[in-house]
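User: Um, any thoughts?
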Amino acid sequence: MKVKILAVVMALACITFMACDDTTDTIGTSLTDNLDLLKVTTDTFTVTSTSFVADSVLARNTTGYLGKIRDPETGAYITGDFMAQFNTLENYEFPTKDSIVSLLDGEVIADSCEIRLFFDNFYGDSLAAMNLTVYEMNEPMKEGVKYYSNFDPIANNLIRTDGLKVNRTYTLTDLTVNSDDRWDEDIYTSNIKIPLSEPYTDKDGNTYNNYGTYIMRKFYEDPTHFKNSYNFIHEVCPGFYFKINEGIGSMAYIFVSQINVYFKYRSDSTFLGTSKFSATEEVLQTTNITNDKETIERLVNDNSCTYLKTPSGIFTEVTLPVDEIVANHENDTINTAKLIMSRINNNTHGDYTLDVPQTLMMIPKDSLYSFFENEDIIDYKKSFTATYSSTYNYYSFSNISGMITYMNEAKQKGLESNPNWVEDNPDWNKVVIIPVSITTNSSSQIVKVVHDMSLTSTRLIGGSENSYDPIKISVIYSKFSHE
C-alpha cells in the first residue's frame, strides 16, 4: 500500500512540474505507464476577448501624475492633474516665538514660502514648456471616500474661489540649476518649484505677506493645529490642486509634494530655519486623469486586437470557455489551466513610445471595482497575475484552474435556486485583464495591489476580427481510475 501511495504522489508531483512546460501533448501517456490508479488527459480550448473602456479607476496611488502627452502610436491625448494634502509630524513645533528674527512691524513672518513637486521619473521631453495653476482647496477631501481618477475637485466645488491661485510655467529640466548639480543625485532631486511668496488672504479676511507667514502665525495662534495631520489639514491647510493649463510633451511622476517655509531664528547665533510639510502616505493624494474620449472609443472599436492602456484607459475582457472545459470532465480534477496573452509589436518606434505594461492581473469582471475598493490581495483562486516576458513577447497566466473551478461552482449553485441564473448573470464566465502595480514586503509577500497609473500601452492578440492564431487555454485533467 505504501508503494502505491508513493507512486501516486510522485505522479502528481510530475504533473505540477510538467505544467510549466509549453508542450503537453505526451504528458498523458508519459505519466501513466504502469500506474493504473491515475489517468491524465489534456485539451485546449479557444478563448474570446474584447477591449472595453476603463472610464475611471480608484486613484489610490501615492504618486501624483502631472502633465499632458500624446501617445505617438494611437494619437491619444492623456492629461494628468492631481490633488495633494500635506502631513505634519506629531506635535510639530516651530522655534519659540521670541526667538524668531524674521519680523514685520513686530510680528513674526516667513521670509519666503514655496511648493516643491519632486519627481523620480517622467515621460516625454524634459524641455517641453508646460503651464500649470495651483489652486487652494476650500476643504479637505473626505476620509473614507473612494475617489476615482475622473474626480475633478474644481467641478465638485472643492476649490476656494477667493483662495490662493498661482500660475507657473515650467520645464522638467530646471535650467536655473547648474548642470553639474542637476546630475549629482546627492545634492539635487528633480523638482518643479512653485513660489508662494505673494500676499495671501485667509478665509477670515486676514492678509499676510506670504503663505508661509500664514502657516507660522496659525501655529503661534494655536499649536494644537499642528498636533497631527488631521488637525493640520482641517485647521490650517486643506491641500492644493495642481492643474495643467497649456503645453504638451511631458508627464511627471510626482513622488513627494512639499511645502517649505523659510525664516530666521536666533539660538546663540542667527540661523536660517526651514519647516517642511510633505504629502505622504498618511494623507490623501489623488490624480485626475483626462483621456481623449474619441480616440479611446476608436481603439475600443478596433476588433482586430484588444488594447491595454493606462492610466484609466482601456482594459481587455476575456470570456473563459468554462462549460466546454468541464464538459465530460465532471469527475476529473483540473490540475492546470494555462492562458497566454500574446502581444502585438508597436507600429511606430521612437524615443517617446509608451512603455509596455509589466504586470497584469486577472479578476472576475464583477470584481472590477470591489477588488480595489476592498484593498484585496492576489489569492490565486479568483485573482491571478502575469508578468511581461520580453523574450517571448507575451504574458503567461500559468495556472488559472482555480478561476475555472470557482466560476463553474458559482454557476451550478446559482442554477439550483434560479433556472434563469445564466441569463441573469451574463458576465459569470468573464474576466478582466488589468495592468497593476504590486507592492511586496521583505518576504516577497504581496501586501498591496493598485491600478498602474503610469503611461503604458500595448495591443494583444484577440478581438472578433483577429487575424492571428486564436487565443487558446491549455488544460490538464487528472482522475483516479478504479478497476
